[in-house]
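The methods section describes the discrete structure representation at length, but only in general terms. Since the whole study asks how a given chain folds, the encoding of that fold should be made plain. An entry of this sort, consisting of the sequence and the corresponding backbone structure tokens, reads as follows:

. . .
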Amino acid sequence: MKFAINTTSFRTFDYGSLFIIVGGILGIYLIRMFLLWGARKLPKYYDATKSIVNWFTFFGILIFLLMYFSKAKWMFAKIIKIGSVDVTLFLIIVAILIISLASRLSKISTNVILPGFYHRYNLDKGMQFTLDRIVHYSIMIIAIIMSLNTVGINLSALTVFAGIISVGIGFGLQNIASNFISGIILLFERPIKVGDRVIIENITGDVEKINMRATIIKTVLNEHIIVPNSYFLQQKVINRSFGDPRTCVVIPIGVAYGTDVENVRDLLLEAAMEEHAVSPVLLASPEPSVSFVGFGDFALNFELNVWVQDPNKLGLIKSNLNFRINRIFTENHIDIPYPQMDLHIRSMVEKDKELVRN
């Protein structure tokens, strides 16, 4: 494949046209500023208006260039030669226009058209994200192919570049290629999906976004962790939302020796039912249960087991139950003992007595 750059067209460029171009672009930007100034009177719609105005500004400049110089020779003069194809500025602008339109079409599809489809069929957040990615990449791939064909580049001519890329992957891009392929597997196989509550190396967080190279995890402390996609296919990851989202919450509690254990069981179940009455996320089926774990060093150990529908509410439900248990135990005079340790120093006292006698 041969590349050749033609500089003759740039030498014969009419610099008078340059001022017209600059003036036209400045005019478009002045219109943009005027529209944005007017949009500030409607702050509720300002962001949406700004996005639309910026979009029309960009395409307005491209269309202005194409219309004004539609008969200019330098617009169709050869800039670079790729094989047997003469690439001109006109073809480049058209290709950029196609890709930009495709990008905007993708955003309209994912932000305006598809949400109605998701709402109609009650699709979960993870499936919505997967479909958004599929639509976006499909539109962009078609746009790139169309732009290449518009420029006149045959896709078969890119086999040389494909060979070079494959060699690069073999030597130094294995990790990137692995994460890229893993990202595709995550989107289609969906072992994890956007919105899932996962535990990675004792860190709990929610899957916020699955990119083609890495996945963004937002922790309960509002921190963001960037995890390579290949990690989820090679390491053990706890997904609390996979399959059945219901999760069991275990709350350990110890009471003093001599306490009526049947009464403790009834009070713990009462706390669980009180929380269920105000928090439907705590399920009544499976029913809450109490386990008498055993006899500890200083307490009788119990566990209250309840089921929660939403894994994201585990911390809140556990905290609410602890508040309720503490209140109910206090009202019913149930003692929660402190850790205790007995020290026997009898032998030391005997030695001290002998020293005093001597």
